[in-house]
Design goal:
Elements lengths: L7 E7 L13 E2 L2 E2 H11 L5 E6 L2 H10 L5 E4 L11 H10 L5 E5 L8 H13 L6 E8 L27 E12 H6 L9 E5 L11 H19 L1
Parallel strand pairs: 1-4, 1-6, 4-5, 7-9
Antiparallel strand pairs: 2-3, 6-8, 7-8
């Protein structure tokens, strides 16, 4: 199947309220609003020609309109999709219904360390394997001893103590990004992870997500320390 990469649209949903890190999306991160780090990386991609920001925040809209001219499409979030408990798939459903694109990559402003090159590699892998998989999502590989909340081992025998590097890998969905088509989203019951998905492993440094204050500090520290490497 041939896919026109120019039809790829990036979805960057953001809400104004943040329970654990106040004003997280517009808080300064390395002297820039956090969301602009990811937005800038998306804009650098040669495989993405459209970016949609879905938000309920007038502050975010104001920053985008001031700094990004007509490079970004704003979807002002309707009241019935506002709040902390609205499923992300419902927001995606709203966005793609208003879009004429067929192919999408959805990411979050809380993943500031994911590089443009990583987005492009993931999109390329999706395109190359599109006849076998209908979607792609990012993961971290875990090779460590895991237990449930009752201290029962999940993936190992404590009496054997196999080296962690010899354990069968387990993969953690890290929410860095999801790639899918409008068709796969609808066919899977409005789900960004389709019926035949594949996983895309992201390295530990890039996959740092920001959920709590400690995450913000850690991600910003990594970002600042890695800038010379990325710019070289």
């Amino acid at each position: 199947m041939m896919v026109n990469v120019k039809s790829f649209t990036a979805l960057l949903p953001m809400k104004g309220h943040s329970e654990r890190v106040p004003n997280k999306n517009i808080r300064l991160f390395a002297e820039k609003p956090l969301f602009s780090i990811v937005l800038d990386n998306l804009l650098e991609s040669t495989l993405i020609n459209k970016i949609i920001i879905n938000t309920d925040s007038n502050a975010i809209i104001s920053i985008v309109n001031k700094n990004y001219d007509n490079k970004v499409i704003i979807h002002k979030r309707p009241d019935d999709l506002c709040g902390d408990f609205v499923p992300m798939n419902e927001i995606i459903k709203y966005d793609i219904k208003k879009s004429n694109s067929e192919y999408y990559i959805q990411t979050h402003s809380t993943n500031p360390l994911v590089q443009t090159n990583t987005f492009d590699k993931a999109i390329t892998k999706y395109l190359n394997d599109i006849n076998n998989y209908d979607s792609l999502f990012s993961v971290n590989c875990l090779q460590t001893r895991l237990f449930d909340n009752k201290s029962n081992p999940l993936n190992h025998n404590p009496s054997e103590l196999i080296r962690t590097q010899d354990l069968d890998p387990i993969y953690e969905e890290n929410s860095n990004f999801y790639i899918f088509s409008k068709s796969s989203f609808i066919n899977s019951g409005n789900n960004r992870i389709g019926q035949t998905p594949q996983m895309f492993e992201v390295n530990r440094l890039e996959s740092q997500d920001i959920d709590i204050e400690e995450d913000f500090i850690l991600a910003e520290t990594i970002y600042k320390s890695m800038q010379p490497f990325y710019e070289s």
